Task: structure prediction
Amino acid sequence: MTAETLRAAAAQPTNLRYGKGLRKLITPVAIAIVLAALYVWVGTLQLDSIEQRSLNSAVIIQKAIEHLRLTVVATALVVVIAIPLGVVASRAKNRLITPFILGTANLGQAVPAIGLLVLCTFVMGVGFQTALVGLVAYAVLPVLRNTMVGVQQVDPALIEAARGMGMTKGQVLRRVELKLAVPAILAGLRTSLVLTVGMATMGAFVAAGGFGELIINGLKLQRMPVTIVGGVLTASIAFLVDWLGGLAEDLLKPRGM
Amino acid sequence: MFETDTGGAQIQLRALTKQFPGQAEPAVDSVDLDIPAGELVAFVGPSGCGKTTTMKMINRLVEPTSGEIRIGGEDVLALPPDELRRHIGYVIQQIGLFPHLTIGENVGLVPKLLGWDRPKAEARTEDLLALVNLEPGEYRDRYPRQLSGGQQQRVGVARALAADPPVMLMDEPFGATDPITREHLQNEFLKLQKDLRKTIIFVTHDFEEAIKLGDRIAVLRNQSHIAQYDTPANILANPADDYVASFIGADATLKRLALMTVDEVPTEGPPDPALPQVETGTSLREALDLMVANGTDRCSSPAGVLSYTALCASIGREEVAAGDR
Ligand SMILES: Nc1ncnc2c1ncn2[C@@H]1O[C@H](COP(=O)(O)OP(=O)(O)OP(=O)(O)O)[C@@H](O)[C@H]1O
Ligand SMILES: [Mg+2]
Result:
């Protein structure tokens, strides 16, 4: 009886873990089904020459690469810019410039995306870099705000303990504050990534490629299948990225929390 | 860093003052205090009287406005603060274990900051966990949230001891525990300090705790003004004024009896097996309890017979006892 009770107790967490593991598989499976359905559906269509020029594997792979490259580079820049700014904004002694930092980041997101890109085009012309500037301006806010909040919400007692044992301010920041803010920062990063994937479609307006090109060409030339393929692929990437972000959060968040 | 003869170093405070900006009066006003090496001094006083501020000036988490601090004769205000703090153990009331680090990593932090090599730091961590009665094999790789409150406080003490600092600052270290755990922790800590002989400042709200742990007690009024600074026995016997007496409470004599053992009282004649028996090391308070419970005025210890009169005489109350008879 004791052995049975023990086994039952041991089985429970395992079941829970399986349940969680299964739930984690739902997103990629759903994406795979949608993509397969899209493939089958496009296969049933009689594509004219204009559609064929867009809907072939060479073009789609190229657009995917362009789209992902924009997303990845923009996100890397967001990390490099937003985390240090978030730390600066979190410091009590900087409270005079904090509203300025947050205000600027807010502006990046509040200004209509197209308007932002057009402004950038005036200054920099069209191309990859222009799209990058627009994307970064748009996606900085979530990471910045979450870094700031994540660092601010660290228990002051922990900081006092850390200082009291002789850590320098830099050591407290790296070993305690940022470590404990990791879950918040990752959550912000996940939001930023999803925003960026969507926003990267606008890259088409400044000749930076990506799935946006399929969507816009489809609309311009009145070829619905092209637009639909561009849209579905973009959405699939957004879901995939969100799913990967979730995995990363589980993997990277400090153990013991 | 500091010169020491025992495990501890002498602490001297001279005219130590802290004026927080924007406040009418200093939080700590011109404190003078000498703490001999290897002694535990308990700071007792009402909330907001400046206990924590006084303590934090010693490790410079609060920079003094004026005055002098010396540890082992060395001028603390001339030392680099971060380096200084690595040589002063610090236990905060909220315990403050790092939730993202294991128990072993928490304890090994200061040795790591001091640049000890890995095997040395790990060996030290094991020793310390064993010292505070936590089996290293079982607890080293756990995270703080997997420990009970009392266990966490032990880890807090172990962490503060890690680099073998001559001075320890402890701010209500056993504050957040139930009375039973607390007494257990106090007893363990007393045993530990007997061997270590660190110089310790121990803040507490609990006068009983101060009596039990302190070699000396500093009773503080507002702004850390020292109302009385003496051994527990002397404070109980001769409170400097009504303020100090109010801290002691109504049962000062019983508290004094608790501080003394039957071995300190002269006996009358050989042990008598017919009387209630006490062992060596029993407190006079327990001996008195036994007499009252048995309705006698005598009990017997291995050294001989102990009378109520002798017990009263030993705490300087012979006239009263004689008058009672
Ligand atoms: N950082 C600070 N800034 C301004 N005033 C402070 C600061 N820290 C403490 N004080 C003030 O200094 C006085 C002494 O505070 P302190 O924390 O030393 O009291 P305490 O004796 O430790 O009290 P408690 O028993 O409640 O912990 C209080 O009036 C408090 O408001
Ligand atoms: Mg305090």
